[in-house]
Design a protein that fits this description.
Blueprint (H helix, E strand, L loop, with lengths): L5 H12 L36 H15 L4
Length: about 70
């Protein structure tokens, strides 16, 4: 999934499916240091289309929860 597709996925999952519980994982750039990638723009794995840090992921969670009535 590309970063631009995240809002569409969020809408499908949270507005249309409305599951009682959602578990989301994403590559965390805060850990790139442990993989020798600190400060690098290269992604850790060829399949990663984007990587968020903790703050970016938390902002996403807050926005989705406010928009669709969920808690995290």
């Amino acid at each position: 999934m590309q970063l631009e597709q995240v809002p569409q996925l969020s809408e499908i999952v949270f507005q249309y499916y409305q599951p009682p519980l959602v578990v989301i994982t994403t590559p965390n750039t805060d850990f790139n240091f442990y993989f020798g990638r600190e400060g690098s723009i290269r992604l850790r794995h060829w399949d990663h289309k984007f990587e968020w840090n903790r703050q970016q992921f938390e902002q996403y969670c807050k926005k989705v929860c406010e928009q669709y009535g969920y808690e995290y």
